[in-house]
Amino acid sequence: MRLLMSKASYRNLVIGVDTLVPLHNGQQVTAINFDNAATTPPLVRVMEEINAFAPYYSSIHRGAGYKSALSSEKFEEARQTVLDFVGADSRKDTAIFVKNATEAINKLAFRLCSGSDEQKSRFSPEKKGVVLSTSMEHHSNDLPWRGRFALDYVEIDQWGRLHLSDLENKLQKYAGRVKLVTVSGASNVTGYVNPVHRIAETAHKYGAKIMVDGSQLIPHLPFDMREHGSKRHIDYLVFSAHKMYAPFGTGVLIGPKDTFVPGDPDITGGGTVQVVTHEDVIWNPPPAKEEAGTPNLMGVVALDAAIKTLRGIGMDNIGRHEKDLADYLLKGMKSIPHLDIYVRETGDERLGIIPFNVRGIFHETMAGVMAGEAGIAIRNGCFCAHPYIHRLLKVPNMDIVRMINSPGEQKPGMVRVSFGLYNERREVDVLLSLLEKVSRNRRMYLRKYS
């Protein structure tokens, strides 16, 4: 059921929007959070659901008491909520609850590397199984694949967008040896939304499967994994609750049940087994096999409440609102001197993420200016996507090597604004006003904050 409300009332759904924070001069202002790509504040409904459920909290599965039975029911209902939210097929797919998207990707990498003999033959480096990642990925969708598979990267253009022609070229080059294409649904640096269903169709044409890192995409736009018979079906999907207004440390890995039946789990222990002797183990079927130990029930309850709230608002409404904020910011930035903006103003489908630098001011210093002068929280650095940032900044490899060997040297990076559903134009106006002042008085702010 949709929640009928204006954009202004979105703000009332989120906790902490009126929190006061101190400035450099000791005064206090209402905080402005433009760091939503890193993590989002909790929804009011999430905290209400947590507090309402807390008296009934108990260990799930196998408990005969009322609280345990209720907890088990809530846990499994949340699993179905997750599957329905992204258009997964509960008859064929499973949703595995983990800590975050990073753990989900590591779990899938382990499973594909250590599963059945058929999986091992298809994915192991010794058999020259290839995983194609891309040059725009977060480290979490790069590092888990290293060492387990032959890994290659789809190239990007000068603006950081994927070269889909390079994807097809590499699929042709490896002649059927690519077993998985793994790609972010949207970049955490530039906000570019990748055409993942088109990528899926290309991957499937060459016999490969696809995994989408939905960490940035799922909280901001509608998403559908599509039916299993479709050429554009998404085989695997991961995302994190803490980026969709549900703290408490939960992530999700969705994929075919058949993937998780063979082989041992990456983490073993209580809850993963049917029978254990000193000589033998019979594992539970998935998803229980992949959820060792007492699960994070509160985190799952929080995610369930967040999804129901987002679905009530309408993901299309959220996407339009955040795009409006991004367009408004980019338009305002055009007239401010000394700004380097690392996305194009028009022509690309993007989330509400804008990376930039003020010439002559180190990115870390600029983030300090934003916080100290106006209470604005933004992210600075390389956003756990070093290769992508280095490419966008055109940093030569020799400079990167020198920086690695010189720990005290200032590292390249950017500052990043990222919007949430509760942000407003008046907050963007505060940012634009400060950027105007800083760009025209750079020396003063450098003296003040260096």
TrEMBL record:
Molecular function GO terms recorded: cysteine desulfurase activity
Domain Aminotransferase class V: 32-431
Taxonomic placement: Bacteria, Bacillati, Bacillota, Clostridia, Eubacteriales
Similarity field: Belongs to the class-V pyridoxal-phosphate-dependent aminotransferase family. Csd subfamily.
UniProt KW keywords: Pyridoxal phosphate, Transferase
Catalytic reaction equation(s): (sulfur carrier)-H + L-cysteine = (sulfur carrier)-SH + L-alanine
Highest taxon listed in the record's lineage: Bacteria
Protein name: Cysteine desulfurase
Pfam families: Aminotran_5
Entry EC number(s): 2.8.1.7
UniProt cofactor(s): pyridoxal 5'-phosphate
